[in-house]
């Protein structure tokens, strides 16, 4: 079952200490506010320990994802793929299910400034989850190990509509030909995320850039060939199966 629930106090405390999910590099003191879109309450402030150099506060959307799967054999089972959805104002959803199969949290941090490895804009969304949480292919395709200095253990899945990139894995799952729901890796904090919160850095690179692109809170719709995956993740990671 997948459902959205209000942010738990313990999780809020953890997010506050992360400086707006500050992994995959440093924010350099970015301040932001996070709000649970289902709560209808005032945003919860997330502050950085390096606030003296912080730009003005902005507001971001945050959701907590809860996914329960039933164990099968020696590994966790995953829910069956659902029919591709359509997001009003955005278009068809290329993902059949949530890439992280466990309890976690993510925010629309696409386009956030990062400084690890040189200044760049964050090209994906970070999905925080416990070490070893399964990461699955959100569509059919070919999974390839693409390790690198910043991303650590990373895997790319290429499908008919484009490719996704998952970074900071603790270890790899199945590579080669995969189906939607195949475990391709496990959440970790390798690469430049070492010592920080464990998470899946998730990017979406469509073959054809959609006409209607979601605008992130940081004012960007596209970074290189990557577009903001937030509206797609929100649909598959926060609604009931």
Topology readout:
Layout: E1 2-4, H1 9-17, E2 32-35, E3 44-46, E4 58-67, E5 71-72, E6 75-76, E7 86-87, E8 91-92, E9 104-107, E10 113-114, E11 120-121, E12 125-129, E13 134-136, E14 141-145, E15 153-159, E16 162-172, E17 176-178, E18 183-187, E19 199-206, E20 222-223, E21 226-227, H2 230-237
Major sheet: 13 strands, mixed
Uncertain spans, ≥5 residues at pLDDT below 50? 1-62, 67-74
Helix content: under 10%
CATH architectural category = Distorted Sandwich
The CATH class: Mainly Beta
Distance between the termini: 6 Å
Q: Given the helix and strand composition, which structural class is it?
A: mainly beta
Whole-number mean pLDDT: 75
Number of strands: 21
What oligomeric state is this? single chain
Strand content: 35-45%
Instruction: Enumerate how many helices there are, as a single number.
Output: 2
Q: How many discrete structural domains? A: 1
Task: Write up what this structure looks like.
This protein is mostly beta strands and 241 residues long. It has one domain (2-237): Glucose Permease (Domain IIA). It is built from 2 helices and 21 strands. The strands form 5 sheets. Strands 1, 2, 3, 4, 9, 12, 13, 14, 15, 16, 17, 18 and 19 form a 13-stranded mixed β-sheet that branches. A two-stranded antiparallel ribbon has the order 5-6. The radius of gyration is 17 Å and the shape is globular. Residues 1-62 and 67-74 have low confidence and may be disordered.
């Amino acid at each position: 079952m997948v459902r959205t629930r209000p942010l738990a106090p313990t999780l809020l405390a953890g997010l506050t200490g992360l400086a707006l999910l500050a992994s995959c590099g440093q924010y350099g003191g970015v301040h932001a506010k996070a709000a649970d879109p289902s709560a209808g309450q005032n945003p919860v402030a997330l502050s950085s320990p390096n606030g003296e150099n912080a730009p003005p506060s902005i507001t971001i959307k945050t959701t907590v994802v809860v996914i329960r799967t039933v164990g099968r054999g020696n590994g966790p089972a995953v829910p069956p793929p659902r029919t591709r959805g359509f997001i009003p104002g955005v278009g068809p959803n290329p993902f059949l299910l949530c890439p992280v199969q466990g309890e976690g949290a993510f925010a629309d941090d696409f386009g956030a400034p990062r400084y690890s490895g040189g200044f760049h804009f964050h090209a994906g969304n970070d999905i925080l989850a416990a070490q070893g949480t399964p990461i699955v292919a959100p569509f059919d395709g070919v999974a390839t190990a693409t390790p690198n200095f910043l991303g650590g253990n990373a895997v790319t899945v290429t499908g008919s509509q484009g490719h996704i990139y998952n970074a900071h894995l603790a270890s790899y799952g199945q590579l080669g030909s995969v189906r939607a729901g195949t475990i391709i890796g496990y959440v970790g904090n390798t690469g430049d995320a070492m010592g920080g919160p464990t998470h899946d850095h998730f990017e979406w690179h469509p073959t054809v850039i959609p006409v209607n692109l979601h605008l992130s809170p940081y004012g960007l719709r596209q970074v290189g060939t990557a577009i903001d995956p937030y509206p797609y993740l929100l649909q598959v990671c926060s609604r009931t199966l």
